[in-house]
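SAMPLE LOG
Freezer: B-3
Tube label: C17
Construct: single chain, 390 aa
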Amino acid sequence: MFGNYRSSTAIAVGMAAACLSMAGSAQAETLTQLEARIAALEAKEQEPVQLTNRFGMQLSFYGKVKVDAVMDNNYGLGPSTGGMALVTDSTPESSDQQIHGYQTLFGFRAEQDTEYGKLRFNIEGDFFGGGGGTLRLRHAYGQIGGWTIGQTWSTFSALGETPAVWDFNGTAGPANFRVPLIRYSTDFGTGTHFDASIEEDYVNWGNRPAVTFAVSQKFDKGSIRFAYINRELRSAQGDVDGWGANIAATLKPWEGGLIQAGYTRGEGISSIMGFSSYAGQQASPTGGRTFYDVDAAGDAVEMDGYFLAVSHKIQPNLSVLAAYGSQSYDPYAGALATDTKKLESVHVGGKYNLLENLALGGEVIWNKRTQFDSQTVDNTRLHLSATFEF
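STRUCTURE (predicted):
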């Protein structure tokens, strides 16, 4: 009898211990699941806020606040160095300085997977309209598969190869501009990329849309790109064919180092070059602009431009850059003695990222303009800048 009692007691104790063990395991499992849920919620709080439109596209907002302080030594050029094209040997010398935020910009992007490929759109504006201070449209385009429709950078623009200087106008030499276009792009899977587009001509004296194509090749230590554009321009003597070709390249010869170079040659392409704000339609005895697409005889004006830049990343958040650019105009019918024969620019500066989205820096810029009568004018500018990205 006592033996049966002891046996029953042992069984009861064992069952109780088992129940306690199971309860402990269940409690531990519940605690683990709770911790996992808390961790997931905390991680979700760190994700950027995403907006979704009625088609299920993920929308994102971006931009930057850029503040520039410029101090000109010889001539007041305005917000950018593009004003150098209007300085002549008779322009009175005077120093000037200003602080502005015209390069501040903002935009929206969205994308969505479809059976035809990625569907994307981009809208962007800044405040450099009207020479500075007015909101203007920079980009407004959509993409589906390999097609781009809307306003964005021209296919003739060499963006990846152009030096990233602080000045809005950039170096002399390259052609970077935005126009409404229809473009088809494709990759060949070996680092080769091809673009072809029909574009609204950059100026109102373009007689038809421009035709442009570009092909680029990426390598382990750089890239090379060739582009061509064909235009038709109106003149007093009739329509004039214009064309341009450029080749640009990048090279990373050492750790942290980058070399960028490009050359452009063409006829009737003055208005699409870096200082194009001061290009006119056709040369005339009264002048009024400093270089032209078409001369007084009705022929396209020949010109060429080139640039070379070397930059080095000293530390992950500190880099320096030196760049030289030039664009020259061949003698043409109707050219005045004070019209532009050559424009040159030198940029030497640096950039320091105090935070991932806060960059401080500046550069010293030297510009020189040579007239057809061989007279020259030059200006030295100190440019300091701060960029806050969001």
